[in-house]
Amino acid sequence: MAMSWMYWNRGRAARQWPVPACGLVMVLAMTLGPAQAMALEQPAGGLQVVEVSGLNTGPIPDGTGVPTPCGNPGAPLNILFEVPALAGPIVDVEVAMSGAHTWLGDLTAELIAPDATTRHILFGSVGATSASHCGDASDFAGPYVFSDAAEPPHGGLWQAATVAGAVEAVPSGSYFTTGSGGHGAINPMPATSLAAAFGGLSASQAMGFWVLRITDGGQGDTGSINTATLRLYIEDQDSLFANGFENDLVTTVEHFDNVNTLAGKGWLLQNNSQPEGAHSWFQGNPSVFPAHQGNDNAYIASNYRAVASEAPGTISAWLVTPLLAFNGDSSVSFWTSTSTAQGFYDRLEVRVCRGWPCSDMGSSATSVGGFTSTLLTINPDLGPGVYPEEWMQYVLTAADGLPTNGYGRIAFRYHVTDGGPQGSNSDYIGLDTVEIRTRAIEGHGLPEVSAVPTPAPTPASSAAVTGSR
User: Which of 3, 19, 104, 366 is deepest in the core (most CB within 10 A)?
Assistant: First the structure.
């Protein structure tokens, strides 16, 4: 992680960031990586400033053009900022970005806090004063800083775009935020306030993933965001992090009491088996064996019917955790068991993907998508007496290849060759009590605006479908 700090006085610009008139401030510049930082001295009465670089910058999906060329956005570009545990509440917020996009009036930029409900428009549909207006034809370039401390005029990009004229880039600089154009808008739109939107958020409310959502509402003109930075002004405290030098680990336990709730928690499920069967993972069947803990059916299971019954096939049934943020103390623990039926052997792989969003599991029974690293394989050779026939715990740490920094997901892959109702292998496995210790899981993971859709798992219906052989 690149780290630097400096003291600024108001009126002394650094990297073109305006500084509020509140005395000296301390700046800690952070890039996404291991989210660790040191507590630094600062003058009494000053502000701490946390600066976080954005993840997932790139092309902005074009507008749909349906039913009209303007006002119908395409899929959003969601740029992420991971904010660590802070020492105090937020006082003010600033956002910087640069890129290249023709026709500024196409774009809308919105900043969304980790709770996914506290949000603020930076600018949108600049120049559009009616629902059918396509907005200003000036180009987006930057770098632009959106700040309550911008110098007048107060009309933000609206006034700057009017001066720039068509096909000219709006000059780089510091601008106030404004509301979106469209029906009932005036030119220029009045200034709005980032501090009014986000000031007062507590340290716990600010911790997690912030999203800078960029949408393109017009078809034809395209572009991208090249850089983005989030800057948070924090009330003066003795330490940047609430707990000194450390990031507390978060422990999340999944007991699979109701597998139909997994998608809402960020879990992903996919059946790549060939030929594909009726389901992959489902609510545990207590008639085969009861759960490790809790109600008898409170576990998740997969079986030989992940492959269709026509002929022997290859089972590849994926169960993937929510997005995680690792550090050196992260660990994954789980319990698993197979049935006691003889002669039909099972195999489970535990794989890891590093990066974001890590939602690619491939599309065939042999592909693994982004999950190229194997942490553990239970019964790799599909032999007798290897897969535990009673619940057994497995624990994985950095010594087993678990990442020590960055982002990613853990995958449980039920992978059996010559499987299915007509195959020589595959029967029934259960998975229970998955316990994960990482820096960011439930409560501080991706907000709902970035959720990856996943099909609901299959609830247990009958022993014929979800039983053993």
Answer: 104
The position carrying tokens 């109701």 is: 258
User: At a CB cut-off of 8 Å and minimum separation 6, what does 67 contact?
Assistant: none
182-192 as b/e, with b when 16 or more CB fall inside 10 Å? beebebbbebb
Higher-confidence residue of 458 and 55: namely 55
88 pLDDT band, cuts 50/70/90, is: confident
Q: What is the CATH number of the domain that holds 141?
A: 2.60.120.260
| 368, 353 contact by CB (below 8 A) | no
Alpha helices in 95-211 (DSSP H): 156-164, 194-198, 203-206
Q: By percentage, how much of the chain surpasses pLDDT 90?
A: 52
Determine contact, residues 125/103, Cβ cutoff 8 Å: no
For 296-319, write each residue's pLDDT tens digit: 999 999 999 999 988 899 999 999
Identify the CA nearest to 412 among candidates 299, 305, 308. Answer: 299
CATH at 436: 2.60.120.200
Query: Alpha carbon of 91 to those of 196, 328, 378, 449: distances in Å?
Result: 9, 32, 51, 25
Question: Residue 58 pLDDT more than 80?
Answer: yes
Identify whether residues 199 and 274 lie together within a single domain: no
Q: Which domain holds residue 286?
A: 250-466
Question: Stretch 115-125: mean pLDDT, rounded?
Answer: 93
> Are 425 and 319 in a shared domain?
yes
Asked whether residue 386 is domain-assigned, the answer is: yes
Answer for the pair 389, 428: CB distance below 8 angstroms, yes or no. no
Q: Contact at 8 Å (CB) between 28 and 240?
A: yes
317: β partners: 271, 414
Distance CA 48, CA 8 (A): 11
Q: What does the pLDDT look like over 398-442, one tens digit per residue? A: 999 998 877 789 999 999 999 999 999 999 999 999 999 886 433
Note whether 256 and 139 are same-domain residues. Answer: no
SS3 string of 74-126? CCCEEEEEEECCCCCCEEEEEEEEEEEECCHHHEEEEEECCCCCCEEEEEECC
Distance (Å, rounded) from C-alpha 241 to C-alpha 233?
14
Spatial separation of the C-alpha atoms in residues 183 and 132, rounded to whole Å: 8
Whether 240 is covered by a domain: the verdict is: no
Where in 290-329 does DSSP place strands (E)?
300-303, 313-320, 324-325
pLDDT score at 10 = 20
Question: What pLDDT, on the 0 to 100 scale, is given for residue 151?
Answer: 79
Q: If we measure between CA atoms, which residue out of 200, 215, 204, 199 comes closest to residue 242?
A: 204
Residues 295 and 328 in one domain: yes
Tell me, yes or no, whether 219 and 265 share the same domain: no
Report the predicted TM-score, pTM, of the whole model to 2 decimal places: 0.53
